Amino acid sequence: MNNFTFYSPTYFDFGKDTEKDAGALVKRFGGTKVLIHYGGGSVVRSGLLDRVKASLEAAELPYVVLGGAQPNPRSGLVYQGIELVKKEGVDFVLAVGGGSSIDSAKAIAAGAVYEGDFWDFYSGKRIENALPVGTILTIAAAGSEGSPDSVITNENGMYKRGASGDAIRPRFSILNPALTQTLPAYQTACGITDIMAHLYERYLTNTEEVEVTDRLIEALLLTMVHEGPRVIADPDCYDARANIMWAGMMAHNNSCGVGRSQDWNSHNIEHELSALYDCAHGAGLAVTMPAVFTYVMQHNVMRFAQVAVRVWGCSMDFAHPEVTAKAGIEALRAFLKKIGMPGNFAELGAKEEDIPKLVESLCRGNGRGGSISGFVTLDEADCTEIYKMMARA
Ligand code: NZQ
Ligand code: ZN
User: What does pTM read for this prediction?
Assistant: First the structure.
């Protein structure tokens, strides 16, 4: 296991009706004037926004409101949010919604206390300072409620990049699984897929002797394999939603990723798809992961065989471990199909003729030097082949 530091100061308030605690929690973490930031309107329709406002009012906290964060949140709204925060003297940013609202809120919080252009953080500069952020989560997926990360799409070129820093880890996150019951089945499944991707991206490591994190990841993957189909069949199943919601947080606050090298090639390859086609991140990952895993499997067949046996129940073929490894990848593919995810470019709305553009942006965009690296290093030829596998799956 490698050396590591781990700082995860988020206060979690989990369970039914917990959104009523919003005002008290903002106060507890020092906020005196709040920006409530949300997405396209699901929180208006569900009545959640009104309940959050009532909670802030009960705590005598003034607030301003900015909606409109789109899935794959855009840079333009971040600039607007930064202006608003400065003009209004806001000192606490409260995201109400999914990963997109949360990531947009984090970008606003970092940009509001920075002299330069907030995009510097999405071009490699680490975030050291930000206004405090709180979240009220409405979809189990991105894990942004516990992560030090934010992903924004630059409208000037439509490419998607991430920024990181402990300063944008939420001070508190309110997780009420019942809030996710209004999700369409497709979005629920996208969330399940993203959570599983966060686990796989950590599982694919080149670090030896990481039994504790391997076992944690396997436990969370098994939970998703069990609870995913249950919640798709019964969307009102609170307990399945509760297990998925906490798994989603654990999958991405990095408690499962410490002390080991991680992959993230699937995420990078997918981000080009959601930037170009505006598809859901989880749906893009459903098409990406089986192709990437098949392509890189030979790099460490035993790692893929291990997850095949321990998570997917495949029997170990000791004479031909690659058979077991492949069976595990096919089990993942079948699972994703079963929960309603797309399996190839056509089902996702992507086009084979765009592959050169995707590869160019992936390997060269925003200062990259012709390749991406993680579990293995992938150059332009590798990435072209992987996108082709996705187109022809
Ligand atoms: O915008 P509204 O109207 O709220 O609708 C959303 C949106 O259309 C809807 N929705 C959310 N909760 C709902 C609901 N509809 C009904 N009932 C509810 N309870 O679902 C749609 C998707 O929402 P979004 O916030 O985009 O989903 P998600 O949480 O999957 O976030 C995706 C974004 O997170 C980024 C992705 O790249 C993508 O941009 N990621 C962020 C990460 C991080 N910060 O750590 C890591 C991830 O790997 C990921 O890259
Ligand atoms: Zn993700």
Answer: 0.97
